[in-house]
Write a structure and sequence with these properties.
It is built from twelve helices and six strands. It is mainly alpha-helical. It is extended and about 80 Å long.
Length: about 280
Amino acid sequence: MKKLIITAITALSLAAPVAFSAGGGVTYPNEKAGINLEDKGSLQNGAKLYINYCAGCHSMEYVRYSRIAADLDLTEEQVMENLVLGDQKFGDPIKKSMNSKLAKKWFGVDPLDLSLGARVRGNDWLYNYLTSFYKDDSRPYGYNNTVFPDVGMPHIFADLQGVQELSEEWVAAETAIKAAKNVLANGDATDEAKAEAADALHDAEAIKSELSAEGKIFVHTQDGELTPEEYKEEVRDLVAFMAYTSNPVKVKSKSMGIWAILFLILLLIPAYFLKKEFWKDIH
């Protein structure tokens, strides 16, 4: 028993940093995705967005078109006409269009498979990431991201979202944080200077949290095909689809769990009377 407990504690201690690095910690902004896995229309729209915008670079090797059709109430004809590209078949998994060797040459890395993307990163992380691209001329593709700074992925939804830039308040807070960290990292700085830098760092982080809560991180400078709210709804649908693909049985497992609990409750009745029968001669 003692050995089992030690093994469990060791496993948890190893898993914790992995979970944190995958999607934990503070991200800006900190909005909730608010997805609904029981909304088949949302999942269907998310599937369409994934195929049109994501499947060129990212595969879903553990998800088959036929399974998507069965779970999302789509016919084979609808899937073949709207989701399946090229010469792929109804029973095939979602494969990316891009050649892996060329992708590594162009981007420096082969874009990862996203079958389990929502399980690894989390729904809220994905939602905030996809809504946090902003214009940054210093980056190779002209965009950066507050959730994943200096990410190599282009802003594939720029035509839908339009262009947003960092607000002046956010830039000022970021500048203050950078300056404070430089002082703290300076071995020649006095204790008084480091104390002031620590206070400035704390204040700047507080300002960032406040701006995030008030939705003042970005300034919309150019309209896209959708309004900001419409774009967020589209992103919610995409994240919902990715959450579904990362665990296709989640919705069904909830209903199965309810029936299992009801069965156990009913099982208590004969178990109770059986217990009384076994113990009647003892009492």
